Amino acid sequence: MTDDAPALAQPSSLRLTPAFLIGAALVGLHVVVGLMTLVWTPYDPTAMTGGRLAPPSLLHWAGTDRLGRDLFTEIMIGARIALAVGSGAVTIAAAIGVTVGLLAAFASRAVDDVLAATLDILIAFPTLLLAMLIVAASDGASLGTAILAIGVAASAIVARLTRILARRVLAMDYVTAARVSGTSWLGIVRIHVLPNIWPTLVVNFALQFGLAVIAEASLSYLGLGAPPPNASWGRLLQEAQATVYTAPFGAVAPGLALVSLVIGLNLFADGLRDVADPTRRRRG
Amino acid sequence: MSAFAAGTGRTSLSVLKATTAAVLLLAAAAPALAADGADATIAIGSLYEPQNLDNTAGAGQGINEAFNGNVYEALFRLNDDGTVSPSLVKDYKVSDDGLTYTFTLQPGVTFHSGDPLTSADVKWSIERVTSADSKSSRKNSLKPIASIETPDDATVVVKLSSRSISLPYNLSYVWVINDAAKDLQTAEDGTGPYALDGWQRGSQLAVKRFDKYWGPKPENGEVVFKYFTEATALNNALLTGAVDVITSVQSPDSLAQFKDNPDFTVAEGKSTTKLILAYNDRVAPFDNVKVRKALARAVDKKKLLEAVWGDYGTLIGSFVPPTDPWYVDLTKVDAYDPESAKELLKEAGYPDGFTFTIDTPNYDPHPLAAQFLQGELAKVGVKVNINVITPNEWYTKIYKAHDFQATLQEHVNHRDIVFYGNPDFYWGYDNPKVAELIKASEEAATVDEQTEKLKEANVQIAEDAASNWLYLYPQIVVSKTSVSGYPVNGLNSQFFAYGIKKAD
Predict the structure, then answer these.
(1) How confident is the model at residue B303 (pLDDT cuts 50, 70, 90)?
(2) In angstroms, rounded to a whole number, what is the distance separating the alpha carbons of residues A265 and A163?
(3) Å from A79 to nearest chain B CA?
(4) Which residues in chain A touch residue B257, judged by CB atoms under 8 angstroms apart?
(5) Predicted ipTM?
(6) With bands split at pLDDT 50, 70 and 90, how would you rate the model's confidence at B420?
(7) What are the pLDDT digits (tens) for B314-366?
(8) Does the beta carbon of B391 lie under 8 angstroms from any beta carbon of chain A?
């Protein structure tokens, strides 16, 4: 039966476009730096090691903040926080979104209508606002609430995408044939649906990852993300705002870090799509 | 009543003449500039938009900034130098027992609606603040008022249940409002030099000179308060000429762009805003004086002040700023000394320190200060968790429910040591000696006696390390060089606009 399914992307067909390579390199750099902070940082992130708002120098590559803490160290740790929130949120979004999406695709017309309308409402609701509500409803802001909030907010989009993709597969003749021959719905999901929809989903996860990183920075900027002294880029930007004229590097450095990771993720996702989408591959 | 300075005239006649002359000259030379000088519009930039227009309905500090002394007047006025002088009161007498105040009102005062000011309006206005549903933070200080009588239209007799030496001061924030006024949340009916001319929520509030004002004519024709939610945007508005003056600058770093620029004037006044780490003195370990003293000694406040304010600001050893008459330099009481802090913790039974949470308002400088405290206290073995909260949460969780271990907060009010005499206040400091001193100071017969008692209370709260007073904010006003005559001290958030002149 699987022979009838559209061909899947095979590793051999991976085309390494320059954009994909740049994206992978940027993301890889952040991953390496983020993991490195688990064992080593240039300074203790909370130690007041330099003067107030010292400019970038050999000792402090990105200068210092108002308390004299090394900004480069804080930005390195910020990469770890961003990646933790991104991967955590995408995992939650994937778990909830794919499950709900598949349920909707298989459900009766009435249930599907209700689920679809609910998802539409959730999607129409701004992600950041939803995240703020979840943080407000829980007992104070923490890294965990930020991950949960962003993950739940993103799950609606994943669910809708899954539902649409799955329904398309379910309409295929070979699926009808499988149903007639008595394959259980779990079997259909495993044999026909998931193998056909995962490439598109993975591309979407990469995009959601980038959006989650931005959402985390926004929440931290508003004081609703990981509490200090967790060095989130959003918090660094917020703290640098008051001193942006006298010490512009305090805002530029975490801003560059944030932009490079999100652009990296988007290029990476674009590259994945070229690989995953057979029509594009043929055109290309 | 020596504490009350003789009425500070708002404008001397000669200044008025000079301005008029200048305006005439300008008008002749350049008719296009006719809006400057005596009829100028002054644009004031502020971060504090009022929630509504009623200071007894939780409007926030912004309403005091825009309306105190500008739109509404009180029986007395708190001047920018901290003195109190009669305003709508022409004259007053105090009985020998200090329990009866007889006020004679200024004649010829008209409300903006055209109604004349009578004693009935004053009675109504005071009772509005003391009424059960008033949300005025000052309600408590007017408690001694037992009754208000109005023997004739120009006389108000206030009878007290106990002496209240601060009554004139306390009456300086009781707006006198027309008792026929209906809507005070979006409209006004005061006696001030300006009448409300329009309020666009989220943007600006305009007041226009009131031509039938009983006092000296303001130096300008119209004042527009423009509201910003963010300090950088506010500074940019001044740089681009969208506003003429900023009521208070919130970071030293933005000053760099104004300081050495001849187009701007930077004025540093004295603020009454204190940043404090308030413990919940009811709960362990903060019910222990030794713990509180240890934490006071563990923090290098000078370093914190430099981090937040650069070269500005003042260190304080208690809650009382140098502008209050009962100020005493108490910075030496629990001066920075981490070694003795460790000793004190050991004596208090915490040789290995302890862990506590600081509920931290989410706006500058609180998160920064919390991280600084976290670093400093870690050095003496005390672990700090930071919980970032919104101002709204602060109000319900801490101010109302007292559900906290410690919190950071800025206290803006002038003469607010009295909060330490109230054991039900959010920080729960309960020393009967201090409560008694503060009560007795209010019942004092003379200002000297009041000052003496409050000095004693001030020393006592410092000895008890009731809270951790981190520093006193500077008060910095920046304006275009062409604009002058604004208040620089910003006491109780007031910003009298009638003296502001524009000399383009």
Answers:
(1) very high
(2) 24
(3) 20
(4) 245
(5) 0.72
(6) very high
(7) 999 999 998 888 999 999 999 999 999 999 999 999 999 999 999 998 887 89
(8) no
- Residue A86 tokens, joined: 């991104």
Q: B62: which 2 tokens?
A: 């912004």
Mapped onto helix, strand or coil, the DSSP state of residue B479 is strand
Q: B316, B447 in Cβ contact below 8 A?
A: no
Beta carbons within 8 Å of A128's beta carbon, 6+ residues apart: A153, A215, A218, A219
| Residue B48: partners with Cβ closer than 8 Å, 6 or more residues away | B60, B61, B62, B65, B227, B247, B493
Q: Rounded to a whole number, what is the distance in Å from the CA of A149 to chain B's nearest CA? A: 17
Would strands B383-389 and B406-411 be described as parallel, antiparallel, or unpaired?
unpaired
Question: Which residue ranges form the domains of chain A, and what is each CATH number?
Answer: 18-35+70-275 (1.10.3720.10)
For B308, the closest of A66, A223, A224 (CB atoms) is A66
Contact A177, A188 (CB under 8 A): no
CB-neighbour burial class of residue A176 (10 A; exposed 0-12, middle 13-18, buried 19+): exposed
Q: How far apart are the first and last CA of chain B?
A: 42
Per-residue pLDDT of B190-247, as tens digits, reads 999 999 999 999 899 999 999 999 999 999 999 999 999 888 889 899 999 999 999 8
For residue B253, the chain A residues in CB contact (below 8 A) are 53, 242-247
8 Å CB contact of B254 and A245 = yes
Query: Looking at this protein, which amino acid is placed at residue A283?
Result: R
Taking the CA of residue B501 and the nearest CA in chain A, the distance in Å comes to 30
* Contacts of A147 by beta carbon, 8 Å cutoff, 6+ apart: A84, A85, A88, A89, A92
Q: B268 by DSSP, 3-state: which?
A: strand
A121: CB partners within 8 A, 6+ apart? none
Cβ distance of B388 and A239 shorter than 8 Å: no
Sheet architecture: strand order including B406-411: B194-200, B204-209, B222-227, B41-46, B245-246, B468-480, B264-279, B406-411, B355-361, B383-389
Q: What is the pLDDT of residues B62-77, one digit of tens each?
A: 898 999 999 999 999 9
